[in-house]
Amino acid sequence: MDIHLTHYTFTKRFSENLTPKTFKFPFRVAWVDTDAAQVVHFSNYFKFFEKIEEEFYRHLGFNFNYFVERGMWLPRVEAFCQYKKPAKFNDLLEGELIVEELREKSVKYHFKIFNKETATLIAEGYVVAVTADKNTGRAVQIPKYFLEKLKPYCKCL
Amino acid sequence: MDIHLTHYTFTKRFSENLTPKTFKFPFRVAWVDTDAAQVVHFSNYFKFFEKIEEEFYRHLGFNFNYFVERGMWLPRVEAFCQYKKPAKFNDLLEGELIVEELREKSVKYHFKIFNKETATLIAEGYVVAVTADKNTGRAVQIPKYFLEKLKPYCKCL
Amino acid sequence: MDIHLTHYTFTKRFSENLTPKTFKFPFRVAWVDTDAAQVVHFSNYFKFFEKIEEEFYRHLGFNFNYFVERGMWLPRVEAFCQYKKPAKFNDLLEGELIVEELREKSVKYHFKIFNKETATLIAEGYVVAVTADKNTGRAVQIPKYFLEKLKPYCKCL
Amino acid sequence: MDIHLTHYTFTKRFSENLTPKTFKFPFRVAWVDTDAAQVVHFSNYFKFFEKIEEEFYRHLGFNFNYFVERGMWLPRVEAFCQYKKPAKFNDLLEGELIVEELREKSVKYHFKIFNKETATLIAEGYVVAVTADKNTGRAVQIPKYFLEKLKPYCKCL
Known about the structure:
The structure is a homotetramer.
Chain A: E1 23-28, H1 44-60, H2 65-68, E2 72-73, E3 76-83, E4 92-102, E5 106-115, E6 120-130, E7 132-133, H3 144-150
Antiparallel strand pairs in A: 1-4, 2-7, 3-6, 4-5, 5-6
């Protein structure tokens, strides 16, 4: 169970993809997402990022269980968010996902979250996930099936 | 309620503080912190960071209400975390906080989270918070009281 | 801010409503909803209940802000859940809401959560919320607008 | 993975324990526990209950992993909370746990949460957990080790 990224290497880069697709997912701010400042708690944007990623996979025809069934998982090795404007209860937000980097054993998703009604950028950030073997904890090559699904959304291909 | 950092400027830097203090806070991983991968969910590290910040303020003799009572708050404008090793239920962790940057209207906290029993680094990251006026949403100068409290923990002073 | 139910009284009961409507809302189990037992954490069913309530109000044409704008809020005074079967990541669930009791100053929602694909009952419970004045903390009469919206979903009318 | 309580039976009751012990655990309300009503979100009391239960086990010299290592777990089959007074950020609370019922294959914990500074009762409730086999999903007898640990805290013995 010695997991996380120590052993993966960033080798293969890909040529530039001129017209990457963007995946979009709209959602409402729930009451439980807010805190006593009456805005969305900053930690919840990372839950939003993950929710967008989950819906992205669903849109592509699979889900995290694809990895679980292969004795793999997708541990996160980096997460970042820049907060531009506060979001409030009941705001209709829209998340956008693109694949910012696709390496041999990892993928970097870039997220933008907009207020869908005002078209204002609320927050922006990224998450780097590694394809890892659940038993050894070592990073392994991104499965071909997954790689092919991601390519159309990657600006780096 | 037009909050968040657009209007703050980073002007005053401070000279190097050779012996900054580190604030330490031990805590246990709760069951609810874990996810189906049987490790702490990546978003919860940001809750840990905030908990450490809260205990830091408590140690200094105040809390977030100090800001609320002055019509201020401390919106986060950036948050980052690098995950080194997974943490599991019941692990005894220890958070470390130092003040990485102290600017006119913002503070950047650097956090490290160790497994206290194995002394292994689990995660590391930072949070940038701005002192803002709750009504106008504009960044304002860090109150002198707060600034003086932070200085001994700042490596930049 | 002395809130919560001590001062409300349960006086007006209503006659039996033979054909109450049921509000239904489908949703997916997110990874963050799970815990190390690889099932949904028991506390999250209360978040699900609230999410269903929020979508119910949205369906009726308003939301919690209706109360906030009138200096009111809807504090919960009781919450209960019975867990029948575990739910797992990616399960497609469907929540059902009916109004179980409608009193002068409170409403009791009954929730059922089904696995939508297997039609299995996963969990069942209720939440009692009071219409309260945010300043005095006292329970107040349910606004007529709200009451009329709820009636078609109440089995007690 | 067909878990949860359908198969357990409530047979053995115990005689009255006149002087049961109470386990107490103090904790602070964190900012992330609050919602836009500037009080603790009602779902978080169930996290508090679980945290108190975890600290109770720790006090008794073990933790949830005791069950995991034996191929067991402790699924919750019922949870209830009555909210008396709101709790706010930074409030110092104290949780109290007693064992309300101890049956062959289940335990019912009763919780009270007080504001430690004002000695006001904030919330009160219970959780029923079943000792279950993780593989078959069936309820099994409470392990003797666990039972003996619980007895001094049970008002029913």
